[in-house]
Amino acid sequence: ACAAVIVSALYYLRLHLRLGIMMLALLLLCLVFGAWVASLSTAAWLSVGIGGFVIGWLFQFAGHFWEGRKPAFMDDVTGLIIGPLFVLAEACFLAGGLRELQRNIELRAGKVRNGRG
Q1: Cβ-contact 92, 84 below 8 angstroms
Q2: I want to staple 13 with a disulfide (CB 3.0 to 4.6 A). Which of 3, 20, 50, 80 is the partner?
Q3: Distances from the Cα of 39 to the Cαs of 3, 46, 49, 54, in angstroms?
Q4: pLDDT band (50, 70, 90) for residue 71
Q5: Rg for the chain (alpha carbons), in Å?
Q6: Looking at residues 67-89, what average pLDDT do you find?
Q7: Are 12 and 20 in contact (CB under 8 A)?
Q8: Who's near 2: CB < 8 A, 6+ residues apart?
Q9: Which letter does DSSP use for residue 111 in this model?
Q10: Are the beta carbons of 64 and 71 closer than 8 angstroms?
Q11: Given pLDDT bands bounded at 50, 70 and 90, which one contains residue 61?
Q12: Do residues 93 and 102 touch, judged by C-beta distance below 8 A?
């Protein structure tokens, strides 16, 4: 898990410094949470793992249904690592941050359906 966090964080930092730092913080929190869950009884960590997996996929299906598009990783495995960064970037955009990055993305990809006009 630590190696995956290091490799992922380096990739995210290379793409965008501010988002990379935020992703690193989130990944470190996930490592701490994972270590705590691993210290629980087998039944408890298995329940947390299965529950998290099911809830995550429900969000995945709901989000892609709303978006009207299939997940990017269906065509390109890189989408698996970009997905979390995409969600963080969208959350920042909704909160009013990273406006220059949002403008640059929209210049290249066009406006996206997001309820903000």
Answers
A1: no
A2: 20
A3: 20, 11, 13, 21
A4: confident
A5: 16
A6: 83
A7: yes
A8: 31
A9: -
A10: yes
A11: confident
A12: yes
